[in-house]
Amino acid sequence: MTFIWNLLFFIILIGVLVTVHEYGHFIVARKCGVKVLRFAIGFGSPLFKWHDKQGTEYVIAAIPLGGYVKMLDSRIEDVPQAYHDQTFNYKPVSQRIAIVAAGPIFNFILAIVAFWAMYLIGVQSPKPIIGDIVKDSIVAQANIQSSSEIFSINGQRTNTWQDVQLELSRVIGAPDVIVEVIAKHQQQPKSRVLDLTYWTPKPESESLITSIGIKPYRPNIHAIVSQVADKSPAFNVLQIGDKIIAVNGNKIADWRDFQTQVWPYPNEEIAIQVERNGRELELFLKLGVTKHRDGKTVGFVGVSPTVEPFPPEYTNHQQYNVLAAIPVAVEKTWNTITLSFAMVAKLLSGEVSIKALSGPVTIAEGAGTTASYGLVHFLSFMAFISVNLGIINLLPLPVLDGGHLLYYLIELATGKPVPESVQELGYKIGLILIFSMMSIAIFNDIARL
């Protein structure tokens, strides 16, 4: 069931992102007088297709992993002299740049719209309050105390843990990072300095927040079953409302304690003591197998706990009216764009491992998970992926929009197009690099399963 849910929202997500991206190319091409032959969403066998009055064919295909806009182009097919004014490659270089750049730009516009809708609905987020600090960690060495709220990082206000994560990603390898924190029962923030010179985070296995030694505050998570997954190891054993008392005779204090007791026994039978309807029962359950975020194989039960809500004073509520939400959404999009460019640079420089690259499986899981949390979370995820799609397409690699833009900018500067032989070589190199990146991303996805 989870697979179908994830797949459904992956298709919705990619469908929206690709349609908006290709529509950018399409609408600007038409505004520039270029004849559009085909507007396709997806690859493979067409599921639906139709034509408009201008002769453009619209196609929705079976494999929802991309799309394209086919324009009249004499480099691809013979074009009669009478149609040269509608031919892409005969248009001024400035118009060709506008047509190619429109796809990524529309992805950024989509992110603004998604963030705008998110803030219009209202965002309820936990404040970045520290629950605990790992001994001898980077944060511990900076004399930051537990129960403190992270107010800002290098002058950038951090209202949520997501803000903290984003700002930390900007300062990987920086020697003096100024963190302002508000201690419990205090009103004014105090500055602390983090030395991240030798910080080597592993985003594929842990968050940036935990890697510097912070354990975010979380409400109590009781070892009381609130949900049992279908066809899971617990399906015919545990029931909603069961209070887990012990595992293999070891007393359980809370949900984290339960996880710690279960993880070491993948594919093994364990004894679980529960309280059900006022009676204590001993049950036997053969665990399944799953992978922890660090890649280790652990025992899997298939139940969800009962979680206390966050206290009101530990949460931020951000909601704006129709007009006020616009600048907030634009700023959020801009911050996401600059962050994503910074992460690409750190990937290229080796500061961030290529294991951090994610492929379609991880994106599908993210789409399904955020959709299960609600519309606001899904909109936020859509905006983030839309920005990243725009940035990836701006990379100066032939076969991507950025590669075409590079060629056209050279033409604009020199007054003559890049030779066909150079373009062909560039396309071949670009294909190899893109294929390599996709292979690494898919390999990382498989390794995380």
UniProtKB/TrEMBL annotation:
It comes from the Bacteria. Its cofactor is Zn(2+). Its main location: membrane. GO terms for cellular component: membrane. The chain crosses the membrane at residues 7-28, 97-121, 375-395, 425-443. Keywords: Hydrolase, Membrane, Metal-binding, Metalloprotease, Protease, Transmembrane, Transmembrane helix, Zinc. It is found in: Membrane. GO terms for molecular function: metal ion binding; metalloendopeptidase activity. Residues 117-185, 206-278 form the PDZ domain. Its EC number is 3.4.24.-. GO terms for biological process: proteolysis. It is a multi-pass membrane protein. It holds the Pfam family Peptidase_M50. Belongs to the peptidase M50B family. This is Zinc metalloprotease. The lineage of its organism: Bacteria, Pseudomonadati, Pseudomonadota, Gammaproteobacteria, Alteromonadales.
